[in-house]
Amino acid sequence: MKKTHLVLPLLLLAAALALAACGGSSSGGGEEAKIEEVIEESATSSDPSKCTELQTPAFNENESGQKGAAATKACEEETEAKEDEAETVNVSNVKVNGESATAEVEVEGTGLNGQSVEVEVVEEDGNWKLNKFLGFTKFDASSLAEVLEKELAKEEGVSPELAKCVSEGVAELSKSDAESMVFEKDLKPVEEIAKSCE
């Protein structure tokens, strides 16, 4: 199986985790409320300007795997083509530390029910922006595998049997390996699983 057959589904999965959803907040006000609003607006907006106004270049580069203007353009194109939206995104545990903050984001819908991630937000010129994913705070490998199986099954050249085999392997990934796969786009664990399935 070619590596390219795995890349698109993993990027789609990362995009789903990249808060492509509706939001809900929990705080009362202040900086925490501003941070929640940025996360929610980034999650719900179909306006490509969010790629520069609500997200740092580093965030766009990490999500797209591209650099500089190409990363921003990839973000803008994905924003305009958004198809698979989650039902809700709930932001909690916002912790501000000077010009940076962290928050926990739980995604519901699109097969990612039960997953939550920690994100870093930074202040640039008085505005809070998403900067990077830090990792899963609540991890459900079987849910992640289910999403991947559905995405792989849509790929030309990937049989249903291969998609199922790969997803079963992903269901056994450690939290650390899953974080590398989703947040750092490290496909080595999935490629090894795919090889063993052939």
3D structure, described in words:
By secondary structure, this protein is α+β, with helices and mostly antiparallel strands. It has two domains: 3-10 and 141-197, no CATH class; 21-138, Nuclear Transport Factor 2, Chain: A (Roll), CATH 3.10.450. It is built from nine helices and five strands. It has helices at 3-17, 30-44, 50-53, 57-64, 68-80, 141-153, 160-170, 175-183, 188-197, and strands at residues 23-24, 88-97, 100-108, 115-124, 127-138. A five-stranded mixed sheet has the order 1-2-3-4-5. Strand 3 and strand 4 form a beta hairpin. Helix 7 (160-170) crosses helix 9 (188-197). The longest helix has 15 residues, at 3-17. The chain is globular, with a radius of gyration of 17 Å. The N and C termini lie close together (8 Å). The model is unreliable at 1-5 and 19-25 (pLDDT under 50).
Architecture blueprint of SSEs:
Layout: H1 3-17, E1 23-24, H2 30-44, H3 50-53, H4 57-64, H5 68-80, E2 88-97, E3 100-108, E4 115-124, E5 127-138, H6 141-153, H7 160-170, H8 175-183, H9 188-197
Parallel strand pairs: 1-2
Antiparallel strand pairs: 2-3, 3-4, 4-5
Mean pLDDT: 80
Q: What top-tier CATH class of the largest domain fits best? A: Alpha Beta
Radius of gyration: 17 Å
Strand order in the largest sheet = 1-2-3-4-5
Features:
9 helices, 198 residues, disordered N terminus, alpha+beta, Nuclear Transport Factor 2, Chain: A, five-stranded mixed sheet
